[in-house]
Amino acid sequence: MSEPQKGQLFKDDFLEADCRQSIYKIDPKEKMQTTLTFPIVIGGDEVPRVIEMELQDPIRYDGNFFTKQDVILTKEKTRLTVKTNRLLYDQWPTEIILLSEMEPHINVIELINYSKSIHKSRMNIFLEFIGPTLRNLLDEYKDKNQLFPYIHVKTYMVQLLRGLGHLHSYKVCHRSILPEKIVINKEKMLLKITDLDCSVKLPEGKAKFEGCELTHYVAPELLLRACCYDLSIDIWSVGCILGELLNKNTPLISGSTEIEVFHSVKKLLGSPKLDDVKDMGFPEDVFFILIKKKKFSTLRKICSDLRPEDLEFLEELLQYSPMKRPAPLSLLNHKFFLKLRDPTVLYLDDQVLPELFKFTERELEIQPELERICTNHT
Length: 378
Fold this sequence. Notes:
Order of helices and strands: HEEEEEEHEEHHEEEEEHEHHHHHHHEEHH
Number of strands: 16
Shape: globular
CATH superfamily of the largest domain: Transferase(Phosphotransferase) domain 1
Largest sheet: 6 strands, antiparallel, barrel
CATH class of the largest domain: Mainly Alpha
Strand content: 15-25%
């Protein structure tokens, strides 16, 4: 059986290989699958249960190992996101393992349930449905030639840092913080981090470099193939996302190869200093190679129309040295969030703001300084 192309609807025989009793109902007008009924094994129960789901969108094919679709359970009328992973060598999907080990958090996607297919060749992961991705919203504003609302940027950044702080408190490095991996409920102004497929737990705080997906959000030490990396690579990615939100929905960093992306970083931040190169895990020889064509930072020039506190906050995140990048929760005390920390600010464009500073006990234990913000809002 040939592998389906990206974005193509699955043929009947594809899911038949997974669940022989799959039943499709095709809407002749839309020419897409509208409902899907198949037997699955829920939570280790060996007796198959038949679950009927109404597809909200065509099934999306994302790479070689999983598919993803938004569905409504016909009986419960509950909307979920379902991911179907291929099981390789009986290994459980990383996302299930990590989400099962962590306590739920308002800014991290919640695992509802999971099931194995009849032939146990695939794992179905049922996640809560939130809404479109941040990439969808960025494209929407770009198509309309509009800026991302300034106060929305701050609201979503608080939630992104809180979600990331929760992952880091369990020594979980997401490794792929991208606009495509962040989902948003526009009505509730709620943000959640999702897609932990590439995430890894770092019990020792560091991990050996094993390659990474090339994006414009990758930390410089990964671009240069450092021997090790730590949790701070996620902070760099947050800085890249913030830069895109503040820079008229346009990424600050570009390039189609690792060398091109690093040169773009170098053009933005200038050449790294010797201490920065050492902090990234490289010997002095690499430093002298990197400064052959010395460049000076152009960040303030490119972002000259930003407010001083915005620029200062961006510079905190985008630092060569992993050791200088702050922890996620410590950044919530930055003056960038001063207006949101004002307990009298309860509405935004006639919309009630979410409870941004209702911290969990775990968060307060990690960052005791947050108690002051929490008390003010109470």
